[in-house]
Amino acid sequence: MKTNIVLFFLTLIFSCSSAPAQTPEMKESIAKGAAVYEDFCMSCHMPDGKGVPEAFPPLANSDYLLKKRQESIKAVKHGMSGEITVNGIKYNSAMAALGLSDNEVADVMNYILNSWGNQDDKMVTVTEVSKVERE
Fold it and tell me: What's the whole-model pTM score?
């Protein structure tokens, strides 16, 4: 009986303190996104997501990614140029459109939004990506 009570409280403590579990769909998307990242993004943003100082902004622990979700999706989908501020540092470079499908954009966004200190449990979907226009 005592053992059951202890196990109950340990389960309660650990379930409250751990990060929310990712769905199987999110895990699959993240795995696919890792491959897209390696093929298209790693050369500029580096294997650790820290970018290149004064050239390519970090994706690791990036306030921009988490606060500017739609702009981030748009950059991956259509490319971008002009000044942005990431973690308090200004960057003014260009990112070419990579020609990714909406599926690939969603997958790589899910990967980078859940890697290197980033955590976003709201899955980027193909439907969400398809609604992001070039303008």
Answer: 0.83
How is 91-127 classified by DSSP, letter by letter? Answer: EEEEE------HHHHHHHHHHHTTSTT----S---HH
Maximum Cα–Cα distance across the chain: 65
Give the pLDDT score at 15. 39
Domain locations along the chain: 33-130
Q: Provide the token pair at 121.
A: 């449990």
DSSP annotation of 37 reads: I
Q: What is the CATH number of domain 33-130?
A: 1.10.760.10
The whole-chain average pLDDT of the chain stands at 88
CB atoms under 10 Å from CB of 108, counted, come to: 27
User: Could you give the CA distance from residue 61 to residue 55 in angstroms, rounded to a whole number?
Assistant: 17
Distance CA 135, CA 86 (A): 22
H or E element, residue 24:
helix 24-36
Cα three-residue angle 114-42-103, rounded to 5 degrees: 60
What CA–CA distance (Å, rounded) separates 5 from 13?
12
Ramachandran angles phi, psi of 24, nearest 5°: -60, -35
